[in-house]
């Protein structure tokens, strides 16, 4: 069964058909396009119309365009529309309209993608589940996810993000969720907002699109929780909270961070629960409680849901942990890498450093007698006028006392570097590339090394360089 017939796509978008075709997928990138996809010629850094001929050569079933591009046959299979982005939105709304199952939408300053993946794992064993790829959560990512959704989907998990005011509400109204979840509210994108309260109000706009009888699930521990609750009660038929504070419906009561797992003790609707998730992190544990709250709303079996959470692991760049061998012949000569190089703000930095502080290095295996907890911290971006204070504030985190060496990347991180005790100071570099060139000097056998920073700080270059030093350990 095809995903879209030509007639259905034309009806959804109001476009003009060229040829009679059907497609099995929707793509915006020729590099990942599969044969039979509808290629959507969006204008971004490059104009997608420049790649239509290539897409058709690779087997695209059709292309959605505003005109017949140069080098494309006049009788090529096309859907011609006035505006490609608007047409993608119309296709997404049509995909949502024909789907008769339940939709969960997730937003938050931190943890959207990991929570979305937890929900995918919890849902997919018992229902035909569709979820966003990667971090497809913006003005093109949400409609693309909906346009890709098979008509027989039973549960969909849609991630919704923002960088400016007014972005979340229209995306939520496009997704029309039955359950909307907010992971947390933190100092992210403050350059576009007056304060964190403004960010909270924008996140709370996810409730604008709730279906009648819809349920709000939100973090009950935040200073801005009252803002979220006010918005939820105005739009939702029911509101559930998760967190550590008394009064949350799903409440964390105990936590043990291991090297590769977190053991979570909690109460869910007055019922004690004990389970593990496949990564260390208090933030992961809290979001897992939010996932259990969503599972409860959806009527999923709690025992099966907690078992599924044990199979979840974070993707690369979001806290993924790996062992790298410095010598293939001697497994003792290895180090642990925590790759958290995708994004950073004060909240996620604190969570990542807590994980590093709980890690267990190995002694007497490297050049240093004692294995070390090493942090490579890239600057945090889009924090607004208080960015210097927020970078400096990392120095007072309790977890800093347990770290041995801190390397800093970027001009904004210089205030932290200068505030560190001299014994903990590693290297300071204005660019990640310069630190990546010295990767071999950053780590030793027995160490646990965390790399954390905003994506634009490019500390992923340090991750790549560290991976090149060693070989993945076999489990």
As a whole number of angstroms, the C-alpha radius of gyration is 24 Å
Q: Give the spatial strand order of the biggest sheet.
A: 9-10-8-11-12-13-14-15-16
Biggest sheet, in brief?
9 strands, mixed
Spans of at least 5 consecutive residues whose pLDDT stays below 50 are none
Residue share in β-strands: 15-25%
Please give the share of residues in helix: 25-40%
The CATH H-level superfamily of the largest domain is: Mur-like, catalytic domain
Integer count of domains: 3
Named at the architecture level, the CATH assignment of the largest domain is 3-Layer(aba) Sandwich
Structural class category: alpha/beta
CATH class of the largest domain: Alpha Beta
Q: Compute the number of strand runs.
A: 23
Q: What's the overall geometry?
A: globular
Number of H/I helices: 16
InterPro entries: Mur-like_cat_sf (IPR036565), Mur_ligase_C (IPR004101), Mur_ligase_C_dom_sf (IPR036615), Mur_ligase_cen (IPR013221), Mur_ligase_N (IPR000713), MurCDEF_CellWall_CoF430Synth (IPR051046), MurE/MurF_N (IPR035911), UDP-N-AcMur_synth (IPR005863)
Binding site for ATP: 108-114
Domain Mur ligase C-terminal: 334-454
Catalytic activity: D-alanyl-D-alanine + UDP-N-acetyl-alpha-D-muramoyl-L-alanyl-gamma-D-glutamyl-meso-2,6-diaminopimelate + ATP = UDP-N-acetyl-alpha-D-muramoyl-L-alanyl-gamma-D-glutamyl-meso-2,6-diaminopimeloyl-D-alanyl-D-alanine + ADP + phosphate + H(+)
Description:
Helix 4 (112-124) packs across helix 10 (302-309) and helix 9 (282-298) runs antiparallel to helix 10. The strands form 4 sheets. This protein has a 9-stranded mixed β-sheet, with helices on both faces. It has a 7-stranded mixed β-sheet with strand order 21-20-19-22-18-17-23, with helices on both faces. Strands 2-7-6-5-4 form a 5-stranded mixed β-sheet. The protein has helices at residues 6-13, 52-57, 84-98, 112-124, 141-147, 168-175, 196-204, 225-235, 282-298, 302-309, 346-358, 387-393, 414-419, 432-436, 439-442, 460-469; strands at residues 4-5, 16-18, 22-23, 25-27, 37-40, 62-65, 78-80, 102-107, 129-131, 155-159, 179-182, 215-219, 238-243, 250-257, 262-268, 271-277, 320-325, 334-340, 373-378, 405-409, 425-429, 448-452, 471-472. The chain folds into 3 domains: 4-84, MurE/MurF, N-terminal domain (Udp-n-acetylmuramoylalanyl-d-glutamate--2,6- Diaminopimelate Ligase, Chain: A, domain 1, 3-Layer(aba) Sandwich); 99-309, Mur-like, catalytic domain (UDP-N-acetylmuramoyl-L-alanine:D-glutamate ligase, 3-Layer(aba) Sandwich), CATH 3.40.1190.10; 320-472, Mur ligase, C-terminal domain (Protein-Tyrosine Phosphatase, Chain A), CATH 3.90.190.20. The chain contains 16 helices and 23 strands. With 475 residues, the protein is an alpha/beta fold.
């Amino acid at each position: 069964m095809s995903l879209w017939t030509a007639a259905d796509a034309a009806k959804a978008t109001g476009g003009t058909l060229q040829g009679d075709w059907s497609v099995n997928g929707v793509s915006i990138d020729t590099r990942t396009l599969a044969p039979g996809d509808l290629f959507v010629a969006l204008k971004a850094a490059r104009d997608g119309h420049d790649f239509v001929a290539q897409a058709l050569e690779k087997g695209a079933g059709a292309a959605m365009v505003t005109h017949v591009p140069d080098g494309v046959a006049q009788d090529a299979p096309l859907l011609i529309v006035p505006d490609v982005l608007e047409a993608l939105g119309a296709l997404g709304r049509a995909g949502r309209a024909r789907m008769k199952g339940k939709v969960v939408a997730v937003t938050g300053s931190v943890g959207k993608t990991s929570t979305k993946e937890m929900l995918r794992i919890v849902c997919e064993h018992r229902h035909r589940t569709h979820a966003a790829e990667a971090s497809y959560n913006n003005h093109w990512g949400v409609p693309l996810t909906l346009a890709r959704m098979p008509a027989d989907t039973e549960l969909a998990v849609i991630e919704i993000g923002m960088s400016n005011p007014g972005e979340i509400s229209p995306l939520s109204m496009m997704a029309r969720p039955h359950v909307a979840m907010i992971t947390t509210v933190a100092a992210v994108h403050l350059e576009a907002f007056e304060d964190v309260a403004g960010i909270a109000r924008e996140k709370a706009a996810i409730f604008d699109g709730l279906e009648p009888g819809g349920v709000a699930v939100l973090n009950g521990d935040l200073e801005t929780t009252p803002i979220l609750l006010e918005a939820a009660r105005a739009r939702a038929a029911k509101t559930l909270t998760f967190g550590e504070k008394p009064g949350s419906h799903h409440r964390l009561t105990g936590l043990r961070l291991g090297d590769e797992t977190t053991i979570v003790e909690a109460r869910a609707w007055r019922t004690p629960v004990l389970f593990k998730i496949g990564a260390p992190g208090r933030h992961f544990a809290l979001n897992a409680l939010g996932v259990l709250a969503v599972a409860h709303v959806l009527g999923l079996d709690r025992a099966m849901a907690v078992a599924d959470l044990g199979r979840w692991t974070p993707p690369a760049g979001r806290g993924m942990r790996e062992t790298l061998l410095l010598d293939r012949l001697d497994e003792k000569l290895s180090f642990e890498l925590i790759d958290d190089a995708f994004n950073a703000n004060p909240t996620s930095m604190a969570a990542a450093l807590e994980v590093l502080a709980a890690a267990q290095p190995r002694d007497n295996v490297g050049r240093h007698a004692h294995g070390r907890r090493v942090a490579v911290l890239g600057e945090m971006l889009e924090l607004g006028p208080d960015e210097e204070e927020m970078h400096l504030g990392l120095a007072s985190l309790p977890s800093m006392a347990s770290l041995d060496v801190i390397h800093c990347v970027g001009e904004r991180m210089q205030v932290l570097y200068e505030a560190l005790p001299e014994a903990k100071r590693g290297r300071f570099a204005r660019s990640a590339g310069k630190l990546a060139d010295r990767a071999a000097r950053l780590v030793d056998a027995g160490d646990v090394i965390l790399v954390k920073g905003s994506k634009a700080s490019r500390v992923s270059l340090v991750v790549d360089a560290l991976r090149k030093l060693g070989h993945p350990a076999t489990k």
